[in-house]
Design a protein that fits this description.
Elements lengths: L2 H11 L5 E5 L3 H13 L3 E5 L2 H10 L6 E5 L7 H9 L2 H4 L3 E5 L14 E4 L4 H25 L1
Parallel strand pairs: 1-2, 1-3, 3-4, 4-5
């Protein structure tokens, strides 16, 4: 991860808006999704592949509200990222919306994802889903705080 990316992760973590990690190897798609989420009230940080996403997650002070994860990427694809995530109790708590331009059947989706959206993404459905996942994450955190 570059110094600029690390600075971005620190600034996003300091935001009062829910943070979303957008992971996609296509720069234009990643930036368009980040713009969409920014307009919907989220703070975003980006990664070009799963391995970079793991580095970004390690640099954040708090876990993101959810991860928007492309499945088909170089270096570490979405399936490998989900496999790694499943081995970490901290990471497995973060909801994932998986996205892909390829046809992905219900039985071929990575284990542990919370939702799947085909590309091109239906913006209306996506924004609604993002709000629900972020709200669910905040509610889970609130319950955890109240239990302790």
């Amino acid at each position: 991860m570059s110094e600029a990316d690390n600075t971005e992760a620190i600034l996003v973590a300091a935001s009062s808006r829910p943070v979303v990690l957008v992971v996609d190897d296509d720069d234009a798609i990643r930036e368009a999704l980040r713009d969409l989420l920014d307009d919907a009230g989220f703070a975003t940080v980006g990664a070009r592949h799963g391995l970079e996403a793991l580095h970004v997650l390690a640099s954040l002070a708090t876990a993101p509200a959810f991860i928007l994860l492309d499945l088909m990427m170089p270096v570490m694809d979405g399936w490998a990222f989900c496999d790694r995530r499943g081995k970490s109790s901290a990471l497995s708590e973060i909801p994932i919306i998986a996205i892909s331009a390829a046809a992905v059947s219900e039985s071929n989706r990575p284990a542990g994802i919370d939702a799947f959206m085909p590309k091109p993404i239906d913006v209306g459905k996506f924004v609604g889903l993002a709000a629900r996942l972020a709200g669910r994450r905040r509610e889970r955190a609130r319950r955890t705080i109240q239990l302790h």
